Amino acid sequence: MPHIIDEAEATLHQRGFKVTPQRTLLLQVLAAQSSHLDAEEIYALAHAQDASISLATVYRALNLYTELGLVDRRYVEPEHRREVYRLADGPEQHYLTCLRCGTRVLIATDLLNSMARELVRRKGVSVTSACACFTGYCPDCTAALKREGKL
Predict the structure, then answer these.
(1) Engineering a disulfide at 96: which of 105, 111, 112, 122 sits with its beta carbon 3.0 to 4.6 angstroms away?
(2) pTM confidence score
(3) Cα 107 vs. chain centroid, distance in angstroms?
(4) By three-state DSSP, how is residue 72 classified?
(5) In which region does residue 80 sit, left (phi positive, over 0), alpha (psi from -120 to 50) or beta (all else)?
């Protein structure tokens, strides 16, 4: 984890941005996560460690980190109203967002990767990123809806 933070801080410095305690804390929060979090979840984790950090600071830092390629941003709703973030040091991840309870279910990427490879093969394009938003019901809500006769 420390080398990821050191590399991110070096990138900030090289690009002319200050490495503030708040930016370092947000990098630490992100580095401690294995999955994407939305800004409010990141804020809650950071605020628990430093009560002076604001939600606006979190959003500004996430936008900067995204622009610098330090953070991956994913949309978890088809309308792109909700974004989640993760340090850009890991395998591709996509989610299904439950319409009933809001839970995010990690989607195996083998099918998406296969689709991207097929797109490259068929169309001769280069895929640099993809946005896949899945909505539906998590396993618990699916089971509950089936019991209620709504699925």
Answers:
(1) 105
(2) 0.74
(3) 13
(4) strand
(5) left
Structure tokens at 25: 């804390």
Q: In 3D, which of 86, 64, 69, 52 has the Cα closest to residue 18?
A: 64
Domains in the chain: ranges and CATH: 1-88 (1.10.10.10), 91-151 (3.30.1490.190)
Amino acid letter, 150: K
Measured in residues, the chain has a length of: 151
Could you give the CA distance from residue 151 to residue 144 in angstroms, rounded to a whole number? Answer: 9
The answer to whether 25 touches 53, Cβ cutoff 8 Å, is yes
Buried b (16+ CB within 10 A) or exposed e, 75-95: bbeeeeebbbbbbbeeeebbb
